[in-house]
Design brief:
Oligomer: homodimer
Structural class of chain A: mainly alpha
Radius of gyration of chain A: 23 Å
Strand content of chain A: under 5%
Largest interface: A-B, 65 and 65 residues
Order of helices and strands of chain A: HHHHHHHHHHHHHHHHH
Number of strands of chain A: 0
Low-confidence stretches of chain A: 439-446
CATH architecture of the largest domain in chain A: Up-down Bundle
Chain lengths: ~450, ~450
C-alpha cells in the first residue's frame, strides 16, 4: 500500500485505528440515514430505494457532507474528521487522507450490491407469465421502450443540444418500468389478475430485458468513445446473443445447477453456488465487452428456472439489503442538487430539460397502452399508466450511467426528477382511473 | 484515485475493464477453490473452514500463485495476467498493477466476513446452557484456558527464545475450543445430554469469551509496541468491562432491539438492524482501543437474547458463507509453508516448535478434565478430550494474529499444525474412549 506524506507522521497503530473507525463510521452513517428514509418512503407507499437515494443526497455533497465521494472534490464535515481523529490520536488531515484512500473499497462493495440486485431482478423475472400474455405484452413492451427512448434521445440531442452519448443514455434510462409500484396498486384494488394487469406485468419483464440490453450497449460504446455503426451493431448483436443464451440456459442449465446443488454438502452451498454463477456471468459479459451488470441480470435469468429459486432469493436478499443500499446511497451522495435551484438563472435550462423528460416519460408509456390489437375490450389507459412508474429500475439505470461517468450533473438531476415524478404520479393516477372501472375489472379475469 | 505510471499508457476503458475482470476473477478463483476443499473436508468430517484455509494455501504463495497478497511480494502466475490482459487489451504489467491497487478492497470485504463470523459465534452462544452447568464448566474452561496459555507462552519464550508478543499471541491462540467437532462426535454416539457433554459445551462457550478477551488485549498491546503493566491492566479491564456490558445488555437491550425491529416496515429490516448493532459495537470496541473483532462478538452476545435470533442467523449466514470464506482463503494464500519442509535444516527448529505446541495443546486441555470437583463419577478423560479440538475457533484466532502481523511465518505454520493436529486427533481419540464407556454415559443423563 502507498503511504502518502501525512500518514508517515502518525504511527502504524494510529493509522490502522483511524482506518477501521473510518470504514465502520461510513457504514453507520450510510445505514442509519438510509433506514430512516426507507421507513419514511414505505409509509408514503414509495419505493425504499428512493429513500436510499434521498438519504445519500442528505448526507452527501448536496447535504451535510457526512459522506462525500473523492471524485466530488468536496470536503468532509470537519467535526467528523476531528471526532475520528481524536479517537485515533491522529490529525484530521490524516483522517481525510485515510478516508480518500479507503474509499475504493466501499465502492467495490457497493458494486457487489448492484450485481446482487440485478441478479435478484433476473431471478424474479416470471418468464412464464411473459409467455402467457405473449404478443400483447410484447407489443406494449416494445412500444413502451421505443417511444420514450426515441423521443427522449432525439429531443435532448436536437432541441437541447445535449451531446450524443448522454442523450442516448438518458433516453435509455427512460425505457424502464418498475413493476413494484403498479403491482401493489393493482393488488390493493384487486386488479392484478385482469387482462390489463397481466399485460402490464408481462410487458415490464420484457422491458427490463430490453432496457438493460440498450444500457449495456450504450455504456460499452461510451467507454470506447466513438459512435460508429460497426461497434454499435457488434455490441447489439453481442448483447442480444448474450441474453438469448441466458434465456436458453434457463431451460437447459438450471437443471444441471440443481443437480450440482443437491450434491454439495458443505454449508452455504446455495449462496456460494449462486454467487459463482453470478460472478461467472459477470466475467463473461465483461470479457466480451458488455457491462458486467448485464451478466448479473443474465445469471438471475438463468437461475430463475432452478427449483431452488426460493432458497436462492432468501440468501441473496440480505446481500441486496446491505450492499445495494450502499450503492444507492453513494449515488445520492455524489448528486449535486444545486443545479436544480430555480433562482439561479444558469439552472433554468436544466429544469426545462427535466420537465421535458418528465412529459416524454409519461406520454411515451401511456401511448404504449394503445399499441396493441385486442378483440376484447381492455382499458388502455390503465395499461399505459401501469407502465409509467420508473421506480427502482429507473434508479438502477441512472446509477449505471453515474458510475460510468456518462452524465452531466444537470442531466443526472433531470433523470432523477423524471424517475421521482413518474413514480409519484403513477399510483395517484392509477387509483383515480381504477376507482371508476374497478367492477368491470373484476368481471374480466384473465 | 492515484494513477501509477503504467496505467497512464492504457486507456481508461481498458483500465476499467481490466479492473472489473481482476476483481471478478479473484472471486471466481477464491470460491471455486474454497468450495472444492470444503466439500472434501465435509466428507472427511473436518471443519469446512480448514478446507478454506487449505484452498488458500493451494492457490497462494505456497501453491499456484493464482492469488497472492501484495504484502507477500510474490508474483502472480503469468498466464493469469496474460489472460486478463488479452481480454482487456492491456499489458500483463498493467494488470499486475491494477491487481495490487485493488487488493485492499478485497481485504476490506474479507474483514466484513470476519466480523460477520464473530457476530454469528456470539449470537449462537447458548448463555443459558453455560449457566446450567455453572461451576463445573467454569472450572474446566478457566483451567483449559490458563494451562495451554501459560505453558505455551512460557515454553516459547524461555525454551525457544521467541519474542514476548508472538509468544503471548501463540499462547492465546491455544486457548480456543471448537465445539463443532466434539458436539458432532458426542451427538453421533448419543453422549451430548450426559453431564460430560453438557460440561464441555458450557465450558466451550466460556472459552470463546476468555480467549477473545485475551486476544483483544494482546493485539491492542502489540499495536502499541510496549509490554508495560499499566496498559495491560487498562486493556484487560476495558475488555472485561466491554464483555460484561455485552452480557448485561443481552438481558436489557435485546428487548429494545426487538421492539424496534417490530416497528420497522421497509424490507431487509432484520439484516440492516443487526448490521447497525454489529458496526456500532465494532466502532465502540475500536474507539476504546480494543479490537473491532471483539465488538463483533459482543454484538452477537447482545442479540443472542433477541426473540428474532433465528431470523438474524438466517440473514447473517449467507454473509459468513461468502465473506468469511474470503477471509480464510486470504489467510491461506499468505502462508508460506516452505518453512515446514523438514529437509531444510534451517526449518527443524520451527518443526520442533510445532511439535511442542501440539503436545502442550493436548496436555493442557486434557488436564482441564481433572480440574473440577464432582460428587458424581464423571469420565474426566472424555471431558478433557472434548475440550481438545481447536477447529475453526483456533483458525479465527490465528487469522487475527496474521492480520495484525504479530507472528513470524514459522510460528504461523506451527500454530496451524497445532490446530490441524488437535482437530484431527480429538474425534479419533474420543471415539476410541467413548466406545468403551458409551453405556455408562447413557445411564448418566444430566
Amino acid at each position: 500500500m502507498l503511504m502518502p506524506q501525512l500518514l508517515l507522521e502518525i504511527s502504524n497503530h494510529q493509522a490502522e485505528m483511524a482506518e477501521t473507525l473510518v470504514q465502520l463510521g461510513r457504514y453507520l452513517i450510510i445505514f442509519v440515514a438510509a433506514r430512516l428514509m426507507a421507513e419514511l418512503m414505505v409509509r408514503l407507499q414509495l419505493p425504499t430505494i428512493l429513500g436510499e437515494l434521498v438519504a445519500g443526497v442528505v448526507i452527501g455533497v448536496s447535504g451535510f457532507h457526512l459522506l462525500v465521494p473523492p471524485e466530488a472534490h468536496a470536503e468532509l464535515a470537519h467535526w467528523l474528521l476531528s471526532l475520528v481523529g481524536s479517537l485515533a490520536g491522529a490529525p484530521p488531515e490524516a483522517v481525510q487522507e485515510i478516508y480518500t484512500e479507503t474509499f475504493p473499497s466501499l465502492a467495490a462493495v457497493s458494486k457487489l450490491g448492484l450485481y446482487a440486485l440485478l441478479f435478484l431482478t433476473g431471478l424474479e423475472s416470471e418468464l412464464d407469465e411473459l409467455v402467457a400474455v405473449g404478443v400483447q405484452a410484447t407489443t406494449v413492451a416494445v412500444t413502451g421502450v421505443a417511444l420514450p427512448f426515441a423521443m427522449g434521445t432525439a429531443g435532448l440531442y436536437f432541441l437541447f443540444h445535449v451531446p450524443l452519448f448522454p442523450a442516448v443514455f438518458a433516453g435509455a434510462a427512460m425505457t424502464a418500468t418498475s413493476i413494484g409500484i403498479t403491482a401493489s396498486v393493482f393488488g390493493e384494488l384487486k386488479f392484478l389478475k385482469t387482462r390489463e394487469g397481466q399485460t402490464v406485468i408481462g410487458a415490464a419483464v420484457l422491458d427490463d430485458i430490453l432496457g438493460i440490453v440498450i444500457l449495456a450497449v450504450v455504456v460499452a460504446l461510451a467507454g470506447g468513445g466513438a459512435f460508429a455503426i460497426g461497434p454499435i451493431l457488434q455490441l447489439v448483436v453481442a448483447a442480444v446473443v448474450f441474453v438469448a443464451a441466458a434465456l436458453f440456459l434457463s431451460r437447459k442449465a438450471a437443471p444441471g445447477f440443481d443437480w450440482l446443488l443437491d450434491r454439495l454438502k458443505a454449508p452455504g452451498e446455495v449462496v456460494v453456488a449462486s454467487f459463482v454463477v453470478l460472478v461467472l456471468c459477470c466475467f463473461a459479459a465483461q470479457a466480451i465487452g458488455l457491462e458486467a451488470a448485464l451478466g448479473a441480470f443474465a445469471a438471475g435469468l438463468i437461475l430463475s428456472a432452478s427449483k431452488h429459486t426460493d432458497a436462492i432469493q432468501d440468501t441473496v436478499k440480505p446481500l441486496v439489503s446491505l450492499f445495494a443500499t450502499i450503492f444507492f446511497v453513494l449515488i445520492g451522495t455524489a448528486m449535486d442538487l444545486s443545479v436544480l435551484n430555480p433562482f439561479e438563472p444558469a439552472n433554468r435550462q436544466g429544469l426545462i430539460v427535466a420537465a421535458f423528460l418528465l412529459v416524454v416519460a409519461i406520454a411515451g408509456k401511456v401511448a404504449a397502452g394503445w399499441s396493441y390489437v385486442s378483440k376484447e375490450k381492455t382499458n388502455r389507459l390503465v395499461v399505459g399508466l401501469g407502465m409509467m412508474p420508473r421506480g427502482e429500475v429507473g434508479l438502477i439505470f441512472l446509477g449505471l450511467g453515474t458510475q460510468a461517468e456518462i452524465l452531466t450533473p444537470a442531466l443526472e438531476a433531470a433523470i432523477l426528477l423524471m424517475v421521482i415524478g413518474t413514480t409519484f404520479l403513477a399510483p395517484i393516477l392509477l387509483r383515480i382511473v381504477l376507482s371508476g372501472v374497478e367492477r368491470d375489472g373484476v368481471e374480466q379475469p384473465a
